[in-house]
Design a protein that fits this description.
single chain, 2 helices
Length: about 110
């Protein structure tokens, strides 16, 4: 089989704990950081909770989110394209608080 361009769609889920000034700030930080690592991604925050009960100006929040990404790769087969797309996504988020995104659906 010869190399061809494949478009791979991936969906991942992640959680991050971060300091923020409120719920909206926590949501915005996650969206901004994920888009910095993968600018074409679509981010959807699915849950936000305070990590501690005590109220302060800056609080710790746990934010759960879903990421949808599209990766274009050159590969010999669809299986190889999926593996390469997953490698690229993991590399893009390495070194960030989002490095543990679980890519649950890659097609």
């Amino acid at each position: 089989m010869s190399r061809a361009e494949h478009t791979v769609r991936a969906q991942g889920r992640g959680r991050a704990e971060l300091p923020a000034y409120g719920l909206a700030d926590a949501e915005h930080q996650v969206e901004k950081e994920v888009l910095r690592a993968w600018p074409e991604a679509r981010v959807e925050v699915t849950d936000i909770a305070r990590a501690e009960a005590a109220g302060r100006i800056v609080e710790e929040f746990v934010v759960a989110y879903r990421v949808d990404a599209v990766v274009k790769v050159e590969a010999d087969s669809p299986e190889e394209a999926r593996r390469e797309a997953t490698r690229r996504l993991r590399a893009a988020f390495e070194g960030t608080r989002h490095r543990r995104i679980q890519w649950v659906k890659v097609e």
